[in-house]
Design brief:
The protein has 1223 residues and is an all-beta fold. The chain has one helix and 97 strands. Helix content is 0%, strand content 48%. One of its GO terms (molecular function) is structural constituent of muscle.
Length: 1223
Amino acid sequence: MGIGKPSKLSQCYVARDPCDPPGTPEAIAITNNSITLRWTKPEYDGGSKVTGYIVEKKDLPDGRWMKANFTNVIETEYLTTGLVEDHKYEFRVIARNAAGVFSDPSYSTGPITAKDEVDPPRISIDPQYTQTLFVNAGDNFKIDADVHGKPIPTIYWMKGKQELTNTLYREIRNTDHTTCLSVKEARRVDGGEYTLLLKNIGGEKSVCITVKVLDKPGPPGGPISVSGVSIHDGGSAIQGYIVEICKAENEEWIMCTPPTGLRVNKFEIHKLIENQEYNIRVCAMNKIGVGELAAIPGTAKPEEKTEGPELSLDSELRKGIVVRAGGSVRINIPFRGRPSPDIGWSKDEAELSDKVLIEKGLNYTQLSIDGCDRNDTGKYTLKLENKSGSVSEFVSVKVLDTPGPPLNLEMKEIKKDSVTLVWEPPVTDGGAKIKNYVVDKRESTRKTYSNVTAKCLKTCFKVENIVEGAMYYFRVMAENEFGVGQPVELKNAVKASEIPLPVGKVTLIDVTKSSVSLAWEKPEHDGGSRITGYLIEMQPKGTDKWGVTTSTKTCDGIVSALTAGQEYSFRVIAYNEKGKSDPTPLAAPVIANDLNIEPSFRLLFNSYNVKSGKDLKIEIPVIGRPKPKIEWMKDGEALKQTTRVTYSSTHVSTILQIKEANKDDLVETTNSYTILTIDNVNRFDSGKYVLTLENNSGTKSAFVSVRILDSPSAPLNFVVKDITRDSVTLLWEQPLTDGGAKITNYIVEKRESVRKAYTAVTNNCTQNMFVISELQEGGIYYFRVRAVNEHGIGLAVETKDPVKVAQAPMPPGKVSVVDVTRNSVTLSWEKPSHDGGSKVICYNVEIQTKGSDKWNVSTTTKGLEATVTGLTSGEQHSFRIIAVNEKGKSEPKELGVPVITKDIQMEPTLNLLFTTYSVNAGKDLTIEVPFRGRPKPAVSWKKDGLPLRQTSSITLLTSEASSKISFKEATRDHVGKYEITLANTAGTKSVEIGVVVLDKPGSPTALKYDGGCNINNYIVEKRDTITTVWETVSSAVARTSIKVSRLTHGSEYQFRVYAVNRYGKGPFVESSGITAQYQFKLPGPPATPQIAHVTKAFMFVTWNEPVNDGGSPVLGYHLERRERSSVLWIKMNRRLIKDTEFKVTGTEEGLFYEYRVYAENIAGIGKCSKTSELVAARDPCDPPGKPTITNITKTSVSLLWTKPEYDGGDIELKFTSKWIAFI
């Protein structure tokens, strides 16, 4: 038909490089309603500058990607706001460059939950900074650390109390997660203690680093003082002092010091008697001798001196110590006393915690606390005590921190929608006045708290707007100027509920002489907690006491064991887990007497017409006592409980409920009426409803007809008939229900199987059948039909299975005889001109023997050719072909003439497409020559007049109808004339085929231009392809060839040549890359190994050399073995096997083994051979005994022999006999 009309024009597109996607975005700050994202720029911007980014977000789990930014984002950071707390989101980023090209989206962040994440600051620092850092003066040094915390903490570098900033010699570099302090050309003033301080809303963290700069010492401190100079040293240096002692009542002096004297001017004398008086004198000595003695005035009396303990508390400590949370406290107090007093520290008259360290010296004590928190606030008392007395002082420590947890959190009042909490202030206020309290709540089904208020100023709070009946946990935290303190949480969940409201109206259902049946309405509200039951209380006339008579979980109950004729009052109480409701009394007292009334009712109408979708309510007053049994039936069948219909009965009502698509049938029965309620009626609710009342006084029945005005139901018995290749006929019957109105017409629709939507074929079909024509041949369709009345279009009936529009195929084309033998006939035929719209499945070949009228199926095939075998030679047969598809069989197509089975001879013929074939060098080429001949001709090949032999690169393969010649990796050697010859008894046929290999030309033989004078020489250079440097091989080459040596095996090289004459060097000619490698390849696989001899201890394996040695002689072989149940091959030889046989030892008796062999030449180890047969490791079987002849006939000989002495471990023996004919 030709070329059709063109499509609409596409949009204009500009050919530009795409922009790479940005890096994966990372959340650097997360709150309950915002997330801050950061990402990296695209690696490639598509050739234009990136001008902005689009941030997309997706609500999890079922959201879709939506744009999160409404202005252009230029930086690689964006704050996403307006998020919902505790919801999960994913984010991704798209880049846009100046050319207007958008990148692909980046990888998503993964799920991120929008909630306040508070992580106190943390510092990760190299262990070397925990010790003093020594730096030589003039050197550079740096201090770096990793910082952590959420939100990202603020970083401060301090030296002493002064914050450091950038100067000429000092630089501070901070990122979100690292910080680095660098100092250039360190000086003495750069030494000292550096403090790294981090702060965020979660707290503070600091670490100290001590730096000591090694430099020349400074000048000594003045002024200079001189001491230790004697009045006169006799002109010679004093060498020592001698101390002597004697008792006051004696004159015998005893030397206390060594004879050589003391070098110091202080000496302690030991081993004295207490309360004994002594005289003491001292003299000096030099190299000349001992000087004059100097006596201590008076006498010395050794006695124990006692001194009460004293301590010195400076004014700063008396004022108290104030420290920030995380800081350190050092309380150093000097003392004195004789003997040395005992030391005792306490905090608020209690023992110290384990984190407090106490240090004691000779005359001082120190209390140390590191990492202070609110719990370290208090009075620290030091008590000194010895036998002369005791003394104590205290130091107040105030830690500025967030408050501790409030005390005694409890519930004061619980209602269905509110809870009132009360608590007491925390013991520790964190060193600052408590500003307010934070109250949080958490549903028991959730893991995270949500804030209720952060501005509570009292120690009580009413939590409102909570979900009635839900379980909640609550917690309270105090807040001061340093932040929110520790929480106190309710141990048990609180249920938002209260006692229920009173029950509704209480109704008397039945009265007998011994019992009363009551029913009541549920309370209007259950207080937020499920009602667990009801109590019926009774009060006999003449008493004021109410007593519980019955407990029930339903809204009705029976009070029994009453006294006939007695008058009683009743009331009902509802209760839940919170308590009892107020009672609801029965309106009037009841006298216990029997009553009998025959059941009766009054129908207002006998039939009802209701439009579909509307509600139907039928109210029928009922009279009867005792309360009659009420039963509803529809269309003669009782309304039974099913998965769709349920009903229940009590003393005051019967409820029928139909659960399907929000459509309910409700039958309600009280002591005075019964009501049938049908909500949202549909066509299936039409029918006759029968009401039956029964009690011991009689029975009463009546019916009500309900007619639902709706669209019709689905047509019945929908079938498809008379399928052709372009049409189908549809048949159906009228719907079961016509929807209360006459059916006016039918709508017929069709749908292709690959589509989801139906299209209308006709909207006004008035009969119960329709023919759909102009269908697509071979198409697969679904059909459906819907009835229409004045209320609308009814339900559809649809074909269950797809319908294929097709019919039986046309007969096959021309039938031909391909081949005839004495017992077979080969036929071929053409495809049918039309397949009937359905693919032809197969063809049946039928045969009829001469003299017979019966056609028989001889064979079935899917192709267009078949061979009928098993025929009798010389007989005449007729043949015909039938095509078959899924719709049936075609008309038969007969062979034009009968066929007589006999052998025929045909001279060989060749069907050669081309006489010359070309192939690129290195590629494979296969030439297939189809031929025919009878009998099958012998095939032979020649090349350039010589017989062609198979090699590793030339393979010949001949089948029944063709001969193939294959060239592997064609080279120049394969170029030539190839002759194929076919010969049989009918004749001979030969054809020549030319093969051309397309390869690079040889080297040039002469220069195109010699510059006008003779060439003097050539310069040859080489270059390894992995470098760009050319190296000179020779600069004085006289000929046009050169041998380049000292190349690396396996490396690729390029060469170039310059011609030189007396005027200089001409342009170069350059070769392509050439790999330095051997001119031979790996050897081919050896022949399949054979096991020549087997025993249980060894096997003798032999093999033949490979057909192709790769161009280099085979140096040897490698043999591998594998056990049948293993996948592991094990090498058998340690050294190269020089021969084509090898003895394998170490076999295990009874196991099966197989072998393979590799050949090796100078190029390496080639491919392995085929695997040998599995052989069991067993000793060989002994030969059988000598055979003897037991019987001889003209055509046979009977032999007899004995079994072998050893059967090799095989139970089943097999014997083979051989014979030799003598002529």
